[in-house]
Automatic annotation (TrEMBL):
Native species: Probosciger aterrimus
Gene Ontology CC: one annotated term: cleavage furrow
Keyword Signal appears in the UniProt entry: no
A GO biological process held by the record: Rho protein signal transduction
Protein name (record): RGAP1 protein
CDD domains (alphabetical): C1_MgcRacGAP, RhoGAP_MgcRacGAP
Domain Phorbol-ester/DAG-type: 1-42
Length: 260
């Protein structure tokens, strides 16, 4: 190993200069001691099918609707399977090194993702999802629509605010819109879990900077300071929209969101 990488079976890093086993078909890398636990048979995966290291959400989305990246689907599914009883979901940080290693492992895997059930700490899975969304070249709220989202959220009348937000959400690129809808439904389920103690206000504080971001890739320090409360308001307002509005974007194709 020249560049340290995580083992595809146990997740621990294989360090520089150590021996490793690599499959020529699916590119799976693992410790020699982990060979017996290696999934079999492997799924051949040409290198060009791997995801880019960075990009906009459409670069990671499938080719058929709903256009929600498999990484997002798998993280959300894992969180909902065993995380809805955890206090501080998405607020409590996972181990930074594990978050980084699992994010890279999932990005390298492309469409055929390793199971997240082997990640003992569900906060690591939450961290992977947040880090993936935070690392996009453009937030789900695109740079061009950012002012429109802020203006819609500022409307004091609830009915008018809801109408304006629905309109601006519909103008998002399809992958951004579908992923937003999928995440909003997930965050609503988290907010409804008493054990998580993460209401809409808490979730909006966590996800405001990640989902809404700023109107450019390089905001000034003053812009960052001014945008912070408005980002939270946008997410809180989006979470106040009825679930059926979000389900409408996922439609009858929701079964396609079951992770591989």
């Amino acid at each position: 190993v020249i560049r340290p990488e995580p083992c595809g079976v146990c997740g621990s890093r294989i360090r520089f200069g150590k021996a490793a086993i690599k499959c020529p078909q699916c590119q799976l890398l693992l410790h020699p001691k982990c060979q017996e636990q290696c999934p079999s048979p492997c799924v051949p995966r040409p290198r060009h099918h791997a995801w880019p290291r960075e990009g906009v959400v459409a670069d990671f989305a499938p080719t058929t609707p709903p256009l929600v990246p498999a990484l997002v689907v798998q993280c959300v599914t894992e969180v909902e399977t065993r995380g809805l009883m955890e206090t501080g979901l998405y607020r409590v940080p996972g181990t930074e090194q594990l978050v980084r290693e699992w994010k890279q492992k999932l990005l390298r895997a492309g469409g055929t993702l390793p199971a997240l059930s082997s990640v003992a700490d569900i906060h690591v899975v939450c961290g992977v999802l947040k880090d993936f969304l935070r690392g996009l070249k453009e937030p789900l709220v695109t740079f061009s629509l950012h002012p429109a989202f802020l203006q819609a959220a500022d409307i004091p009348d609830d009915a008018a605010c809801s109408t304006a937000l629905r309109h601006v959400v519909s103008k998002l690129p399809c992958a951004n819109r579908d992923t937003m809808a999928f995440l909003m439904l997930h965050l609503l389920r988290v907010s409804h879990s008493p054990s998580c103690k993460m209401d809409v206000f808490n979730l909006s504080r966590v996800f405001g900077p990640t989902l809404v971001g700023h109107s450019s890739a390089n905001p000034t320090p003053l812009t960052i300071l001014e945008d912070a409360p408005r980002q939270c308001k946008v997410v809180a307002r989006l979470l106040s929209l009825p679930p059926d509005f979000w389900r409408g974007f996922l439609g009858t194709e929701r079964e396609n969101l079951v992770p591989m």
